[in-house]
Amino acid sequence: LLLSLIILIFRLRLELDDEPVRTIFFVWWPITFYVGWIMVATIACISAWLVSIGWDAWVISESSWTIIMIIVASLFYILLVLKRNMREALLVGVWAFVAIAIRQWNAHTNIAYTAITASLVLLIAVSIHGFKNRNFGPGSKLKRGEW
User: How far is it, in rounded angstroms, from Cα 6 to Cα 41?
Assistant: First the structure.
């Protein structure tokens, strides 16, 4: 599914061209949010599968492996913003990392702190990107009367 979505992103030139607001709302955003969700789900499923087969993570502890996965996922989200302007997908990553932090807060504080830090880094990245591109966003287009 993730591979199909990646192909779709490239074929539609998602978030690279200056499209009307209706295209942004009804084509780009649904696909972009879905990509964000599927990235989280793919990482979670791969991790669960590795645990189920008894993979020893090259002698890395489970909590360290989780931290590595959070960092890798964060890098993928940042790449989506830098290369494809897909801020919406990154926001799904923020939500996922906050959920991980809440879930792990009492059990694994190192994972929780990593997830919160990743969320903050992603929020900063999306804020900077959004500010730099504020004149091209749907809010600016709607103010100009473009639909």
Answer: 15
- Where is 124: in which H helix or E strand? helix 109-132
pLDDT in tens, 49-91: 887 887 776 788 888 888 999 999 999 999 999 999 999 999 9
Reading the block at residue 70, the tokens are 């959070």
Q: What is the DSSP letter of 137?
A: S
**61/57 Cα distance (integer angstroms):** 7
Measured CA to CA, the distance from residue 104 to residue 52 in angstroms comes to 20
Task: Show contacts of 110-114: CB within 8 Å, 24+ apart.
Answer: 110/63, 110/67, 111/63, 111/66, 111/67, 111/70, 114/66, 114/67, 114/70, 114/71
Q: How far apart are CA 87 and CA 78, in angstroms?
A: 9
Residue 64 in tokens: 């360290």
> What tokens does 102 get?
């809440």
Q: What is the pLDDT of residues 105-139, one digit of tens each?
A: 999 999 999 999 999 999 999 999 999 988 877 77
